[in-house]
Amino acid sequence: MRTRDESANEVARVRVFTALGGFLIEATDCGLRAVTPIATERVERGAADDAMKGPTPAGNDAPRHAQAAADALRRYAEGEEVRYDGTLDVAALAFHLAVWERLRAIPFGATTTYGEIATALGLPGEARAIGAAVGANPVCILVPCHRVVAADGSLRGFAWGLDLKRRLLAHEGSGALSPFADATER
Question: Do 110 and 54 belong together in one domain?
Fold first, then answer.
């Protein structure tokens, strides 16, 4: 994983439409910058045609990074247990990058807690700081922040909404969707 290179100003963009929804992928020559859900209204207006056009022209590697992420996202939506190991090009604190690397290690269908990540990083008692780093993740699904739940098993904040978090966990067959866990934002 790399931090964002400010000289990498060319950005390739591709829209991907899956059974889980539409997503905008942005990448630079240095790696993947963002995966963001696209509002449903835009999908209904025919934006799905953009998925066939591929990335916009950029430097040599930006389209390759965008296409690799798009392929991984499509395979994930089809039920494949995908682990995205591509390079990230995101401006972030070293602490955030360390947390996101832990997120990338959470297996498909599994969950962990903010406290467990804190302990694994040698920061017991820092679950709130971990939550802030998880919430700052700009790479939806491929850096699987949706797999992090509260210590009591409840679903807490998710930058793209708890409905999407529930759908992603259900897609993976996660046990985190217990009927006994309070799945409301707090």
Answer: no
